[in-house]
Design goal:
By secondary structure, the protein is α/β, with parallel strands linked by helices. Helices cover about 15% and strands about 45% of the residues. It is built from 6 helices and 21 strands. The relative contact order is 0.10.
Length: about 375
């Protein structure tokens, strides 16, 4: 990290990147159009691999079979544009290896009027396990920047991946991630997504495909819309394997003049599917809005799929109840929002939890 500018280092730190890279099992950083760090902790030399995607494609002929195999190149104008990339990460966890310390990655923008285009591939071999924290961020005073990120994730038989993405953008940043995950038999994938900052325009809808039997796919989204942010976020889980489970839960807070679309699609195509879709939203003021769009598609009779959505202000009865227990109104609102935006189950660094607590405190003052 010694050769990385201070503003970039801080931007990375704000999205969970450890300055002491020896504390992570592997570290990767891409700034603007260049990979500036790709580090493997020596303790994990025979357990995992992390490389710039361009170097990985040169090293492994077999990787070309997976490159652009999940995300359709012709999906939209952004996937077409992203075929000319400057880099991205390739993460591979070897068969049977369980990585007990998180891997970390950061994609950062440090210059104005920059369009960053990256392609990431994560490959968990059979019976492996990993926890990845991936952060995207911008340096202060960056204007009119754009990020296009393609991610293809392969979770092989009996493998488990916990993937946390933290975004920290700006009022002038346009963001277009395009992600697909493929799960084989008995595989598990948990996605945690956190956005607690301004963003000009964000549109993303990651997809998980449960190809094998007995799969589990979970999406957890925590969104705090600020200012004039336009946020269109969704998730899609396709269950093609028997006895597979899915869960997609979004917790959304819209403040100021932000507009948030919270979408979700669950598709059950095999027997004994269990799936649940949920969106809960809090609207802070009359200029903000939340549009919840849940969708269930069932193509078998022996499935159980459900959804629920609730949007509005904090219920007065909840505040009244807590006040009856001795709390002030502000304390009651703070407790409710803190519970609503809790990230305790996401295994985040303590400093990230502390930052979220600070943002919650600012939100309470808006009521």
């Amino acid at each position: 990290m010694n050769n990385i500018p201070n503003d970039v280092e801080k931007a990375a730190f704000d999205v969970g990147f450890e300055k002491d890279i020896e504390k992570a099992s592997a570290s990767y950083m891409h700034v603007d159009h260049s990979t500036v760090l790709s580090f493997l902790n020596s303790k994990y030399k025979d357990k995992l691999e992390i490389l710039d995607i361009c170097l990985a494609l040169e090293k492994y002929d077999w990787l070309h079979e997976y490159y652009w195999s999940l995300v359709d190149k012709e999906k939209d104008e952004y996937t077409k544009d992203a075929q000319d990339i400057s880099g991205g990460y390739f993460i591979r966890v070897f068969k049977g290896c369980k990585i007990d310390i998180p891997l970390q990655a950061c994609l950062a923008l440090s210059k104005s009027n920059t369009k960053q285009k990256v392609h990431n591939i994560i490959f968990l071999e059979e019976e492996s396990e990993a926890n990845i924290i991936s952060g995207c961020s911008v340096c202060p005073d960056i204007n009119e920047s754009e990020h296009i990120g393609i991610s293809e994730i392969f979770v092989k038989r009996k493998a488990k991946l916990n993937f946390t993405m933290i975004h920290n953008w700006s009022k002038t940043t346009k963001v277009r991630p395009r992600s697909v995950v493929l799960l084989e038999e008995d595989a598990s994938f948990v996605s945690n997504y956190i956005l607690m900052s301004h963003v000009k325009d964000l549109q993303m809808s990651p997809e998980a495909i449960c190809k094998g039997d007995n799969c589990e796919a979970i999406f957890n989204n925590i969104i705090y819309g600020k200012g004039l942010s336009l946020i269109d976020i969704g998730s899609k889980i396709v269950l093609n394997g028997k006895n597979s489970n899915a869960q997609a839960i979004s917790k959304v807070v819209a403040s100021d003049n932000s507009k948030i679309f919270a979408r979700g699609i669950l598709e059950g195509n095999q027997d004994k599917i269990k799936a649940h879709l949920e969106c809960r939203g809090i609207i802070v003021n009359d200029n903000a809005s939340i549009h919840a769009i849940p969708e269930l598609i069932g193509n078998r009779k022996d499935i159980k799929m459900s959804h629920e959505a609730a949007v509005g202000k904090i219920a007065d009865k909840e505040i009244t109840y807590l006040m009856s227990r001795g709390l002030s109104k502000d304390e009651a609102i703070s407790l409710i929002i803190r519970g609503f935006l809790s990230v305790d189950l996401m295994h985040l660094p303590q400093r990230i939890k502390n930052s979220i607590d600070m943002l919650v405190s600012q939100l309470v003052e808006s009521f």
